[in-house]
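Quick start: read one record
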Amino acid sequence: MEQNKFHKNFKLNGLSFSSVDELLVHTKDLPGEINQFLKSWFSVDQKITVQTSGSTGVPKLILLNKDFVVNSAKATGSYFNLKEHTTALLCLPLKYIAGKLMLIRAITLGWELDVIESSSNPLEKVNKPYDFSAMVPLQLENSLFKLHLIKKLIVGGGLVSKELEYKIQHLSTAIFATYGMTETITHIAVKKLNKHMLLKEGVKNNSFSDKNINSLKDASINAFYQILPDVTIYKDKRDCLVIDAPKVSDEIIFTNDVVQLISDNEFEWLGRFDNVINSGGIKLYPEKIEEKFSNIIMNRFFVSGIPDEKLGEKLVLIIEGKKQVIKYKNLGLSKFETPKKVYFLEQFVETETKKIQRKKTLDLLNFDNY
């Protein structure tokens, strides 16, 4: 079996290995879960156990076919042209699929992988360049001043805010948002987040004026995901994305992500079906409304629907932190997109990977007391 060996050019933290046993002995003293995962990967078992993040439901353990994991690694390498001797940085926790896949890509494709402790500021102590890495949005936000060290970066595990998109437009790093889930063995689609734009005003040291940001907004950053090879997509009756990816999954995957199909291989993500608000018969997609609010709210926030006698559900805005005045008249909100009330919470409920758990956060609010 292919997964019971590793590429001859694979390196871990600068070291080469002549055998699986040598690799396992070396990783035994490394922090984190590297050794434990590699033992599982190189075992005779046909599948590995991985844990979902729990951002859209209860965290659960699922089994993934090792051959499918290898196929996913090869698809990423092919799409981003990451061949043997690619230098890569692993700064994600190995507990979840995104971190595991960085390691498997390196083992399968012959990369030279450096592993560092997962933190919110992963490049803080990094001074060497890399061809490729993967981060969550918070890590990207905290790495802007040193991101030139990474040639290509994929970002997953949460939405990249519009404000952050504006900040990365001038960077030399090619940055891609990913779409996927544990069941699809990370991403099955990607979209480019920056275009290496040269602003007329000249942007240095991430210092953005309102004029700079407005010019970027006018540039209309591409909102469409492009699927990887050997993936077919369509919509179900709920307008949710359906994924047929036989090289990474035995089953057709019915998601809860509402999308608009742009072409056979492109789609726009509108939001989670679970989060759709029906206000007076009008369907509202919180994630799209939140994009507009991200231009003016610096704290973490989200919008949601709560029961209302007249509308069925009414839109409310929940902000983490102290009370503040929110001026949103110039955001281009429709009548139904305008929050009927704004609530403030000291701290949101979140997963281990810092994703907001909307329902549990809402449960903290006693709306009758407002």
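DSSP finds nine helices and 19 strands in the chain.
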